[in-house]
Fold each of these.
Amino acid sequence: MMNRAQTEGIDLIVLDRSGELRTEVDPAELPNHLSNPRSLIWCDITGAEGGQHGPHGRLLREVFGFDELTVEDCFTTNHLPKVDIYDDYLFVVFFSFHLSEKRQRVETVEVDMYVGENYVVCIHHRPLRELERVRRRLLSHDEFVSASPANVAYTVFDAIVDEYLPIMNRLSARVDGIEDELLAAGDATDAVLDSLFHLKHELSALRRLAVPSRDVVGILMRPTIGLIPEESRMYYDDVRDHLVRVIDMIDAMRDYLSGSLDIYTTQQTQRINRSMQRLTAIATIFLPLTFITGIYGMNFSYIPESNWRYGFYAILALSTFLAVGMIVYLWRKKMI
């Protein structure tokens, strides 16, 4: 039996098919409710109290009878979305997205969920408003949600995925802002470039979670998954459509950022090329002048016209003529 401290972070709701709703349920009573096929059990576990060998882990193993490997997965991180199919239940790993205004990044929270014949169990390491919305719908005796565990699971998926689209819209606004800063200013600051690369990395990380999530929902829609009745599959298809839209938005933003970076790189290359062109033009102008002055600057005893009275002025006039001629030529060729 679990004491009061050990039940902290465990939210239990039992809804009987007769309509009786119980919110204060002792975990010791769970075996009786689990054996009653007319019951619908909602178990929401927040936190990782003691890890897989703590009270929460023992509840999952000893009371619900879940496989040891899935219990271990619930208390470790860095998974990708997945679904494991067992004879009596489904084990699903999903992720909730949250945009942190303070850290200016998207944070992810893993949500592990078991779906059985008459129960849904969720495990996550911090409180989530999405699951609180599911809880409120259960408490309000929502007929759709309380119809089956499959509908409760769908409501969890729907609540989580509904949070994705507003985050994608806000990220899209950030992408537009970065593009404006990148292309409006002639020379982007390091902060703008850092924001661009950080956002690209973040979008790639989100895509690595969104694509497997879509595949997970697709697996749950298969006719061979008996715990998801046919009448519930159309709702799961709606979740998959939302995920497809999210993936499309992520891909569009990544392409947008890559295109903006390519345009910026091209602009920088053109700017460098123009600078090199000007430097080449200047070197071209001074090349014949350097050649002439180099010849007449040699210290030989006899150089033609070296003793001519007007030799200096003649060389100066020749150099000026060549310089002006080169400038005119390069200007007509639009090199300066």
Amino acid sequence: MSELVQLKKPDLPPRPPERPKKPLFAGREVGSFRFGSKLERAIVRKVGEAVGDFDLIADGDRIMVCMSGGKDSYVLLDALRVLARRSPARFELVAVNVDQGWPDYETRVIEAHLRAEGVEYRMMSAEYARIVEAKLRPGQTPCSLCSRFRRAYLYDLAPALGATKIALGHHMDDLCETLLLNLFFSGRLASMPPKLLAEDGRNVVIRPLAYVAEEETRAFAAERQYPIVRCGCLSCGLPDQKRQVVKRLLGTLEAESPGLKRQMLAAMKNVKPTHLLDAKLLRSLGISMGNEEQAPVERSEEFG
């Protein structure tokens, strides 16, 4: 991984890009607490629930919040800022944006927002878009390769900034989509964990928005009037990408059966290993299928 580079861009223009009409904590004095809206309360409470369920944040943490300029990263940052005011755990936040080198990626818009909000931030440059494009095979999209480069860069950056956790903006819908993507296309039953020790063994990655629906992040982004920025990659969000296909499928099913994605989230929290076919998992849990006393018992409502 190349040396970490601080992004240096020209001074911001006199007229700043569009940003929220007022800062997050405008009119809310330090030392007293109240939510800014019902939607903010709903989101922060779900973030707090995930933090409690999976021990995502500990006293003294310094959390590196990854800021892409998309709606979810803005919501993640503000939800953690609000949570920091009401949580018994004392923790710090540092927002980080990484310019990956894609053309027309408006990092100055993101920086203007972070500066106006008064949060600690770093604007970094990785410039690996050209490397990704050079390694692509004909017909291949850059998403997976770009993700690996970005992950490696962030894993090097976090210790350099003294961060104890890396916070990503994946929400409930992302978890549901990933579950189906792995099921349909990878032959695995897996989603995105709310907390994991990275493969480098140095970093802990957390997803505080795991219980928050995308419709909530979308609504809160509109409420806060965030300056949304696209990553600049022309392949981002193409309709024929597998994730977009699965997203549309889930959207159709949710429209027909409201609450379906919440049921999927509940299912991910209510796994029955004995009713799956993973023999290694059963052995790791000490379950021997040859022992009739330990064999799973089916109830009538489980027949299908």
Amino acid sequence: MTDAMVSTLPDADMQAAPKALLRAAQRAREIARQTNTRLVLVRAGELVEEIVTDPQPAAPEARRVT
């Protein structure tokens, strides 16, 4: 996890949210790859369908969570 994905919120549950979101995204990629299903996501404001061949994203985009 990059520094940009660290929550600055005081609530412990909210501090754990960025890691949980990364785990959920990874699991979605794994399932899409295993079932040969397209992964639907938003990139640069555009809705994109992606065929997953690699369980790791090609270019991870980190955003600061505040």
Amino acid sequence: MDLSSLDGRMPARGGITENVSAHGARVMVGMPLPMDLRVTVRSMLGSLRSRARVVYCERMTNGLFAVGLELFATVGEWIIPGTMPATAPGKPA
């Protein structure tokens, strides 16, 4: 997945999706992200596009950062390898 700030100050960064639900996602990234940062989310697999807000950022023992995202205005499908597509909120499965 790609994350970039809405204001353009943070260039797109890649992340690994750990889990996703209709209203949020947990992703692993290489650099910390500040709380309440508004970002644009784009899935690399599937067609999901969303705006999101960083709700937490935790440093993990492997040096990566676990970031919790609250998703807004989501469209498309988020595909995690080995699973069925997750349909955006309000869309029939």
